[in-house]
Amino acid sequence: MALIRRDLFSGTTDLVDQAIERLKFYEGLALQMHPDGFYVADSGGKDSSVIVDLAKRAGVKHTCHFHPTTVDPPELLRFLRKHHPDTIWDKPKTTMWKLIEKKMMPPTGLIRYCCGYLKEGGGRGRFVVLGVRWEESSRRSARRMVESCFEREKHRRLINPIIDWTGKDVWAYHAKYNLPYCELYDQCFTRIGCIGCPCAGPKGMAKDFERWPRYKERYIKAFQRAVERRRDEGKHSGPMTMWTDGQAMFDWWMRQTPKDGDGPLFG
Q1: pTM, 2 dp
Q2: C-alpha pair distances (Å), 145 with each of 15, 26, 152, 164, 219
Q3: What's the rounded Cα separation, in Å, for the pair 246 and 222?
Q4: Helix, strand or coil for residue 134?
Q5: What percent of the residues of the chain are helix, what percent strand, and what percent coil, each to the nearest 5?
Q6: C-alpha angle 198/201/206, rounded to 5°?
Q7: Under CATH, what is the fold of the domain 4-67+120-187?
Q8: Among candidate residues 223, 258, 230, the one with its CA nearest the CA of residue 109
Q9: Residue extents of the structural domains in the chain
Q10: Pairing relationship of beta strands 62-66 and 127-129 according to DSSP bridges
Q11: Tens digits of per-residue pLDDT, 37-94?
């Protein structure tokens, strides 16, 4: 299955060769930033599997890193252990459950505090390779192929080598090179992220909790601790009085919707 794009102005483009050349072109800068070269963000999703494989085919120096969030699908963790054995697991300093108690509220599509603590903190001082694509959302359509990131003193550069690929291109790459992928894609999951991610919307969240009911229980228990802490700190007043217990907070959370349709960072 060919990954060729024909454009009226640029002519014929081999997407694989183009992505590889992008990585080769910036390898020198990646090595200037860190002796290990590129920091490949490996979420275990279909897009991440492509950039991991592209980095190998490009022959650029790199290390692959996975950030477990403590709410990852078990099937995804098994896939990574089996098929991406070289990927380094950078464990978070906290858990989703402790974060909920600390923040005293659930993560939402607008306030995604969990991503900053659990998912997006890696690669400080590195040139980070991501699987971000324009097609995925309106928010990502404004991203660039190469970006600089200076938030929270985490000086990083970012490269999105498949930013102009479509979902069909990604699956064509999997087919062409016989890349393994997580079994959840064959079970009606189009995106794989944290269990209960609010960016999936109420229907997606309900689907997650039907598949993994124990995580629903853990969320409710964490929400209960958050409600109790709100009471202890005198914050159980105003518009959030409907949060009478963990179940009430969960029910409120399940009615919320994502704000811009962006979804998990890695697909």
Answers
A1: 0.88
A2: 14, 11, 22, 8, 36
A3: 7
A4: helix
A5: 50, 10, 40
A6: 90
A7: Rossmann fold (3.40.50)
A8: 258
A9: 4-67+120-187, 198-254
A10: unpaired
A11: 999 999 999 999 999 999 999 999 999 999 999 999 999 999 999 999 999 999 989 9
